[in-house]
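pinging the channel bc i need a second pair of eyes. not urgent but kinda urgent?? the chain im working w is below, pasted from the shared doc
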Amino acid sequence: MKSFFKIFFASLLALVIFTVIGVLILLYIIGNATQPSKPDIGSKGLLVLDLGANFKEQTKDNPLTWITGDPSDDVPGLYDVVRMLHYAKYDSSIKGLYIKAGWNSNGFATNEELRQAILDFKQSKKFVIAYGEVFSQKDYYVATAADKIYCNPSGGVEWDGFSAKLYFLKGLLDKLEIEPEVFYAGKFKSATEPFRVTQMTDANRLQTTVWLGDLYSNFLLQTSAARKIDTAQLHLWANTGAIQNANDALTHNLVDGLKYDDEIKAQLLNLTGSKEGSEVNFVSLGKYAKAADFEREGEDKIAVIFAQGDIVGTKGEEGQIASDDFVKIISKARLDKDIKAIVFRVNSPGGSSLASDVIWREITLAKKVKPVIVSMGDYGASGGYYISCNGDSIYADRGTITGSIGVFSLVINMQSFYKNKLGITFDGVKTAPYADMESSARPLTEQEKRFLQADVDTIYAKFKGRVADGRKKNVVYIDSIAQGRVWTGQRAIGIGLVDKIGTLQDAIDCAARMAKTTSYRIKEYPENKFSLQEFLHSSLTRSIKADAIKEKVGDKQYKLLEQTEKLQQLLGIPQSRLPFEYDIK
């Protein structure tokens, strides 16, 4: 009888799952049949750039977005947004651009590329209006490209300066009697600090002060140029807390007026030439992506390979740079004779040192047969720099976080935790002294510690050699700017880690010049193929789990849980990656 019920319920569960999948497929087919391929955006459209959206590097098509109702699934990738803004310059149905502030969570380089695209759009002489109830500093940075900035009378503009906060876990681990055994190369390699100290080391504090100061200086300089306010004055206002509400922002000329939502809509109706009392024809980026023919056409192909996320070995999940997957992608672009050049778009804080070297090798092979241009986004650091360093030319944004040339390895000794907290002990046999090395059930011996440190030192030496070869510098010099130190793209120019400050489009233009082609189209990788299995497993399941946890513990605690979870990925595998994660405000 037990066997019967087991088979019965298993069959019932399978039937339910297949029914759900069948319904989703049917809805997808019906949706495709009933929805127009190109939506009508009208004649007086106002393109909306919502800064509350998370702009990933590459657009991921999800034809079931209209089923889930999740607006984040319908946000185009950053490069598509840039191309759409350029296309909208010449689109007579688009009368202007509306920038909506929304607690911008995008990286500094992403915001720089958005801001450059807005400035390009403004050359059309079409109006650009920015509005928000509250402007974060990242919101405001992008908004300074607008013709006018308006704020809700009861809102305000955040003007506090920048800060970077790093979480430290050593105190927690000490209480639990868990001992991290850390091995690293590079005095600035601060990724292991959360496990071995309770506050920043002097070296880490120095490097963080420098790169955070670079980001802040650029923020003040761009604001100064846009608002015609001296940088010293802007700095003083942050130091003295002079901007506390919307009226303060207006008094100090950070905004052009205070308006409620209905007032800003009335102004937008007037600017678009619409009838009074009608509705503003807001056009979302997702809708415009389906309506606009913004993709370039040409005879030749330039491959743009988007590498975003942590670098991992073999197979990875969505949002990771898996070595197996990217070796195949780069190899395919290398062997395709119709592809005249490769642009490798990197947005990664690093990860597995071995996986980074595997990808580096494939980039090296590609470089022998066609131009390879690297474009770095928010991050091109540690392993992210490893896979970038051998490009023919390296582009970065001013706010790109790069460098961090260093290596570390981490092993956790949980013997005391198991014994004193859980009452668990271990025993066993082995055929050789090191058969159970890196087991969490016992501490490492002195000889085992020497093995692991030697491994880290060897990988670090190889990393520096790769950079020296790619940048055509000697290893001694590379060592002087390496040591795990983090640099901004702006500062990386002067020390030779980056060739030019520029956007992804600038890198593509460079690739076209090197390939001696003016007639080309873009071929994007990874190829954008919708998979229902991936949708159900990744987009839906992961989102549901994350939302449920966030609801219970809150956003800040959820971030801490994410960092703790990442600890599992680091154990026993030599890593070339940035500090655990800074909370940058």
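so Confidence is low (pLDDT under 50) at residues 66-72. and The first helix runs from residue 2 to 34. — does that match what u expected or am i reading it wrong
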